[in-house]
Amino acid sequence: MLKRLTLSLFLMLFCAVPAYAASLIRDAEIEYALRKIAQPILQAAGMGSNRIRILVINDPSLNAFVADSRHVFVHSGLIMKLSRPEALQAVLAHEFAHIANGHLTLRASNLRAASTQGAIGLALAAAAALAGEGQAAGGLAAGTASTAQRVFFSHTRAEEASADQSALRYMARAGLDPDAMSDVLNLFRGQEALRPGRQDPYALTHPLSRDRLRAVKGFAASQGSAGGEASAETVYWFNRMDAKLKGFLRNANYVLRRKESKGNSETAILRRAIAYHRTPKPKKALSELERLLAMRPRDPFYHELRGQVLLESGNVGAAVQSYRNALALAPNEALIMRGLGRAYLAADSADANRAALSTLEKARTRDSGDPGMLRDLAVAHARVGQNGLASVATAERYAIIGRYKDAELHAKRASGALPRGSSGWLRAQDVLIAAKSAKTRRR
């Protein structure tokens, strides 16, 4: 749970409607995979494995950026375009270098200059919440053609050169191939010759040049045989993440036809399970998941995915048990808690609703900026007769996604229903302060 001061500041800082809304992909398995992939780079950079949070934006374009000193955002399109984990590690190393080299120190003044209407909006709100948005409902303004956003997110050529050099050192220190950065830069060759509307966002926010690519190749060549391949564990989690993203984001029938979905490899089975679920063919999906669980019976994310398939195909009781199994194996994963809470709500009995409330309150202590969780938490509060707290959770959800008029309405309702000075009442006051600040900034 955020401390009250932190939440109040978060809600006051960013109150904008984004130029366009994308969504954050909140998935426990994908976020775990990203932590595994980033770990050797963070260690090489001396940043600590728990300092930086990496979140995925559901967007087919190619981009990655930092919004503050603790959060890196990567577009799903860029992850799925990269063919090896070392290339993704190079992207992350570059973004970590922007943080380590102090390139964010002028961001506050850039924000004031570039965003009188708060055009950056929810990307920074998600970062300030220390937890990010939740599933498809979470709006995120990032990588648009908006002039204000380009000014804010863009780096100078000098900053890019500095970040490249630092990132290359991190890669070499971690024993990884520095030339993997060339893989990334080659994706964007020729972008600067295109009209801005046709450029990938990465080209707008990370200036490219032949000199920059030449410098990267020169450093990589100077390392000789020092650059190695990613560890087997890193490759494994990269492939699982790739399979899951493509399984959910690409056309299901296309996924099933692909060569990568044939055979008995773990990732092929995972792709098929997801594609069958989306077709929908739940029996086939569950059959493939049983094969995965036979391979890895103590994998929490396969139990979680089984719970999702069961819940979305209407088998609520079995879904609850699968989510329980997943949570027993990963007791601190807030996103698995959210799934279990949703399954309890689907059961909709007195006992299940109480269990949902308990589970979702625990999820809130670990991921309090997740609108999807707050939506479910509001339902759970209402079902057990805690209407004032339901209004608080609803108000916070609307504030996080930038709907301050609705947030104010529910916060006022909560203020009238809860004891003055109680924790719920204080949370409602935070939302009211944020809504007032939003009105002021829009004038």
TrEMBL record:
The keyword Signal applies. GO terms for molecular function: metal ion binding; metalloendopeptidase activity. The lineage of its organism: Bacteria, Pseudomonadati, Pseudomonadota, Alphaproteobacteria, Rhodobacterales. Its cofactor is Zn(2+). CDD domains: M48C_Oma1-like (cd07324). Pfam families: Peptidase_M48, TPR_15. The keyword Membrane does not apply. It comes from the Bacteria. GO terms for cellular component: membrane. Residues 34-218 form the Peptidase M48 domain. TPR repeats lie at residues 300-333. This is Peptidase M48. SUPFAM superfamilies: TPR-like. Keywords: Hydrolase, Metal-binding, Metalloprotease, Protease, Signal, TPR repeat, Zinc. One of its GO terms (biological process) is proteolysis involved in protein catabolic process. Residues 1-21 form the signal peptide. InterPro entries: Mito/Outer_Membr_Metalloprot, Peptidase_M48, TPR-like_helical_dom_sf, TPR_rpt.
